[in-house]
Amino acid sequence: MTKARQERFRARRIKANARERSRMHGLNDALDNLRRVMPCYSKTQKLSKIETLRLARNYIWALSEVLESGQSPESHGFVEMLCKGLSQPTSNLVAGCLQLGPSPMILNKLEDKCGGPGMGSMVAGHPLSYPSPGLPSPPYGSLEASHLLQMKGFKGPVYDNPSPNECSSSTPPYDGPLTPPLSISGNFALKQEPSPHESERNYTPHHAHYLSSHHYPTSTTGSLPGGPQAHPLLQASRYELPLDVAFDSFGTNSFSNNSSSFTEW
DNA sequence: TAGGCCATCTGGTCCT
DNA sequence: AGGACCAGATGGCCTA
């Protein structure tokens, strides 16, 4: 191999690496968007990739069950479906989220952002915000205000992290519509804030992203999400595992009820 | 220290 | 030839 050829090869490899990085960032962005429409989205305690995919699968399936069977999403079975095949920490997280009723903290959060009770009042007073028959207590297990804002039928864009002066009054950056599995989830976070990686994409050497992306529920001891990394909302309540679910191993289970069956993937 | 999770690099394969 | 996609290898960070 001549030197010129080596250089060409090297240049090609560098370009390919950059493309691959970009491709993976796109994949991660998509995963972040998926996290946002999950029933227990939290910026501070991200689900791992695999858990996000598992929960998404469960979520779609559980909501389908709600539609088909008319069962209450507040039922034990709904939580079971959501937690199927998830790790114990993630199961704890989900179970804990679904036990949360409408939290004043969420409204306070909005008020903080928008400089007064206006936004919070609007949310609480929105005719479609809640209660929503047949759905879990708002915000439907979510930790995000967007879940509360976007209940059934509410089509307006919701920005879960508006810039200081925006407060949902101006056009936010938006790179495309999300397509949540079902609109009844009301979980339409349209604001596309930069992912942790995004803001660090200058490719300063290796793993700078870890400065801001290490908040994963990685506990394997079954500790409840009230620990050091737990979301503030979670720290405030008590959690109980759906015991018949949380300890299932992944990959071999099948779950069925009267209307459909469900096989692990 | 082990294990989990992650981003990145790399070479292979397929497609245009 | 070049781009997209994939999977294996590698090494860093974090938590228990």
UniProtKB/TrEMBL annotation:
Region spans: Disordered: 159-230
Keyword flag Transit peptide: no
Pfam families (UniProt xref): HLH, Neuro_bHLH
Entry-linked CDD domains: bHLH_TS_NeuroD4_ATOH3
A Gene Ontology biological process term: camera-type eye development
GO molecular function: DNA-binding transcription factor activity, RNA polymerase II-specific; E-box binding; protein dimerization activity
Domain BHLH: residue ranges: 11-63
Xref: SUPFAM superfamilies: HLH, helix-loop-helix DNA-binding domain
Entry keyword set: Developmental protein, Differentiation, DNA-binding, Neurogenesis, Nucleus, Transcription, Transcription regulation
GO cellular component, one term: nucleus
InterPro entries the UniProt entry points to: bHLH_dom, bHLH_transcription_factors, HLH_DNA-bd_sf, NeuroD_DUF
Domain of life: Eukaryota
Biased composition (Basic and acidic residues): 194-203
Ranges of compositional bias, category Polar residues: 162-172
Assembly notes: Efficient DNA binding requires dimerization with another bHLH protein.
Protein's UniProt name: Neuronal differentiation 4
